[in-house]
Structure formats: C-alpha cells, structure tokens
Design a protein that fits this description.
Distance between the termini: 36 Å
Number of helices: 0
Structural class: mainly beta
Largest sheet: 4 strands, antiparallel
Number of strands: 4
Strand order of the largest sheet: 3-2-1-4
Shape: globular
Length: about 80
C-alpha cells in the first residue's frame, strides 16, 4: 500500500540563509518521511518532486503563522 501524497498550504516562499529556494507550508494530510503527518514543514526547492498545484483554496493563514520569517534572507511571496 502506498503512502498518500502530502497536501500542503504554502505560506512563505523565498531564499534561505544558505541561498536555497525553499518554502514553508502547513501540511494538512498525506505522507511524511519524518513521521509527522500534520504540521509546519520547510521544503527545499531542489528536493521537491512531482509538485502539483491543486484547485483548492484556503481562506486565511494559520493563526500561528508569522509574516517576515527570519529564516529567509529574501521573501519572494508570503501570505
């Protein structure tokens, strides 16, 4: 049996302190190598595969979301 693909709600997209393209998202469902199936995750662009943009929407950021995340040296897009 295969693990379902993760579903993530992206909140911040940009360049981290090491110059890598990455995003911060809240995972709401699906598989996870860490064993944490729901929660905040950071994804490196160079390691992402089989990415799909779905036609689903979310109405607002998570209550605990903080804009202008200090982990990014340059933010391309954020909620």
């Amino acid at each position: 049996m295969s693990t379902p693909e993760p579903w993530n709600r992206i909140h911040t997209y940009g360049i981290d302190a090491n110059g890598r393209l990455c995003l911060v998202a809240f995972q709401i469902a699906g598989g996870s190598r860490s064993g944490e199936y729901v929660g905040w995750k950071t994804f490196l662009g160079s390691q992402m595969r089989n990415v799909a943009i779905l036609e689903t929407h979310f109405s607002a950021p998570r209550p605990e979301y903080r804009r202008n995340d200090g982990a990014f040296v340059s933010i391309i897009s954020q909620l």
